Amino acid sequence: MRHPLCHLRGAGIRALRSEGLQVDVLGEDLRSKIFEDALKSCRMVNAPLLYRAASRVPFSVLKYAMTLDGKIAASSGHASWISSKLSRSRVFELRGRSDAVIVGGNTVRRDNPRLTARHGGRHVPARIVMSQTLNLPEVANLWDVTEVPTIVVTQRGANRSFQRLLAAKGVEVVEFDMLNPRDVMEYFYDRGYLSILWECGGSLAAPAISAGVIHKVYAFVAPKIIGGKHAPTPVGELGMVEMTQALDLIDVSYEQVGPDMLISGFLQPIPDLAPVIPSVDETYAIDPSVAEFESKIIFFYKTWDPYGAFSNFSHHPIHMSDDSGNYVTWQSVEHYYQANKFVGGDDPMAEEYLNAIKSAASPEEAARLGRRLQRQHPELARPDWDSVKVDVMYNALKCKFSMYPHLHSMLLSTAGSVLVEASPHDLFWGGGRDGEGLNYLGRLLMKLRSEFLGEPSESSEETCLAF
User: Which NCBIfam families does the UniProt entry name for this protein (predicted)?
Assistant: First the structure.
């Protein structure tokens, strides 16, 4: 099957075919009932890549073990062991296929887990603890990071003294303005995580499901009954009052593991990211160097391919002049773009937001911060943003491609090709999953290319313009 990301799609197929090998793509070259089943199997194997590309969060699996009467622990909190040794071995396998395992504070306090894969010599996932208050024990197995790293995510300002204690032990602490599963998963998406295994209790599982970040469920059901009116269940309150509101699993599988039954299935359909090549009709009007027929299309996306430097997220600092005529260095085009949302206001908070974005550790963090602040405090954003944001981006791109000769040459080398920002989700700057996006970033680069090539355009005397 083709890779879910446009900028990587087809390269392997072309390389194999160029060597004279026959390559058949399921669903394209091969079509029949047998191949439809094969494609489905292929998509299930590649589910982490597909979900991550489609939802922009890591592929997340919720795992729990429960009794026949739906309890994950006794009323006292004791939970060792509900499932069999064979089932626990399967859990170690799940951990070994994950980039990280995530739990909540209750699990740390009650179970003091290690969250290791225990299979010897192979991949060991990172451990993530989500805790809003950091009301956690000072001594815990997860604070031993000699072999496996632990990351604690929490609310900004929570229990500073305990944060210092964790830092002294080598545990990484990450603060969020509002701690919720969606923001946490977007953060770990930006850090490059592919798949995460949730081994949390019901109080964290419920908001994770509600936030839409859980994609698959593995439920180990043990032939035991423990009862208990207050015994915890695997999923907390979801706000549902009728059975018609229940969430149905998709592609459900049943497997006996020792005395236990393993039930697994997807909460969301596996995304189909089949490529659709966008039309070049409107592109020709922007960049006449592009042929109207049989034009080559160059996809780029962040910094993951040979043309990734075209992205506003590439790590190329730019120098832009401020209102006083002084040149200011920005870590990337994206830093400059996001900060401009708060330029020109009299409110000191707007200036504070601008500086926070400017000092963000990465373009991804600058983007996340700028979007969140604009959403939470729209009154502090410049009122003309929608009408000026394209010009802001263009000026920053022009500065970047004027400052770096190798980027300038790379852009000119694409003359005659359509440039498409391959984000499947950004329908304004990107081309969209099905070519339905406006692709404004690609358009601006083609416009800039025309200007550099001497096509009729605006004056290019000023390369690094003011706010």
Answer: eubact_ribD, ribD_Cterm, ribofla_fusion
Q: Which pairing describes strands 59-67 and 195-198: parallel, antiparallel, or unpaired?
A: parallel
The reported pTM is 0.60
Domains 53-238+246-266 and 297-453 share a fold: no
In SS3 terms, the chain reads as CCCCCCCCCCHHHHHHHHCCCCCCCECCCECCHHHHHHHHHHHHHCHHHHHHHHHCCCEEEEEEEEECCCCCCCCCCCCCCCCCHHHHHHHHHHHHCCCEEEEEHHHHHHHCCCCCCCCCCCCCCEEEEECCCCCCCCCCHHHCCCCCCEEEEEECCCCHHHHHHHHHHCCEEEEECCCCHHHHHHHHHHCCCCEEEECCCHHHHHHHHHCCCCCEEEEEEECCCCCCCCCCCCCCCCCCCCHHHCCCCEEEEEEEECCEEEEEEECCCCCCCCCCCCCCHHHHHHCCCCCCCCCCEEEECCCCCCCHHHCCCCCCCEEEECCCCCEEEECCHHHHHHHHHHCCCCCHHHHHHHHHHHCCCCHHHHHHHHHHHHHHCHHHCCCCHHHHHHHHHHHHHHHHHHHCHHHHHHHHCCCCCEEEECCCCCCCCCCCCCCCCCCHHHHHHHHHHHHHCCCCCCCCCCCCCCC
Domain boundaries, the chain: 1-46, 53-238+246-266, 297-453
Note whether 110 and 137 are within 8 A (CB). no
Q: What is the b/e burial string over 13-48, where b = at least 16 CB atoms within 10 angstroms of the residue's CB?
A: beeeeeeeeeeeebbeeeeeeebeeebeeebeebbb
In CATH, the number for domain 53-238+246-266 is 3.40.430.10
Give Cα 418 distance to the centre of its chain.
Answer: 27
Residues paired with 128 in a beta bridge:
102, 151
Strand order in the sheet with 195-198: 172-176, 150-155, 126-130, 100-104, 195-198, 59-67, 216-222, 260-266, 250-257
Task: Give 10-residue mean pLDDT values along the chain (467 residues).
Answer: 72 84 77 79 90 89 94 84 90 91 92 78 85 93 92 93 93 91 92 93 92 94 92 88 87 94 92 54 46 64 71 90 78 94 83 91 88 89 89 94 91 89 81 76 93 62 46
